[in-house]
Amino acid sequence: MPDTEKVIQLSRIFHVTTDYLLLDIDEAPQSAAPAENNRETEQRAAEKQMKRQSMRMHFGWFLLIFGIISFSATLVGAGLYAQTLTEWRTNLGRYGTALFDSWILALFIVSAALTLCGILILIREYIFIGKE
């Protein structure tokens, strides 16, 4: 008969019960390694999710700032162009003609879309920051 203390030590080393060592019971060893691996995997997945969210937030801020800057530059450009006009063809006057009757309208639309996309991305990320 083996020493009781040695049986207990063996059961702790191999993560099995003493019944498994002493009796002929078909029992799978209870390994602690999968639990640690699961925790590490979950931690890595959480870190990866946080990194993705951070990247989306940075992208949203970039779109918002770039959109506002380009939007402002478009309006300033339209204002400068409006000063050179001697007649206008829209009901919005000289400034409306400069904005809507030239290529500046395309820049205006693109900059407005960039600003809107940045706002929507940031709203989504800040609202769902803890829900994923």
Structure report:
With 132 residues, this protein is mainly alpha-helical. It has helices spanning 4-14, 18-22, 33-84, 93-100, 104-127. Helix content is 76%, strand content 0%. The radius of gyration is 33 Å and the shape is rod-shaped.
In angstroms, what separates the terminal alpha carbons? 56 Å
Q: What is the radius of gyration computed over CA atoms, rounded to a whole number of angstroms?
A: 33 Å
Extract low-pLDDT stretches.
Answer: none
Give a count of the beta strands, DSSP E runs of length 2 or more. 0
Percentage of residues in DSSP E strands: under 5%
Biggest β-sheet description: none
H/E order of the elements? HHHHH
What is the general shape? rod-shaped
Number of helices: 5
Assign a percent range to the helix content. Answer: over 70%
Structural class, from secondary structure content? mainly alpha
> Mean pLDDT, rounded to whole units?
82
Summarize the structure.
With 132 residues, the protein is mainly α. The chain has helices at 4-14, 18-22, 33-84, 93-100, 104-127.
What is the strand and helix layout of this fold?
Layout: H1 4-14, H2 18-22, H3 33-84, H4 93-100, H5 104-127
Helix pairs in contact: 3-4, 3-5
List its traits.
76% helix, mainly alpha, rod-shaped, 5 helices
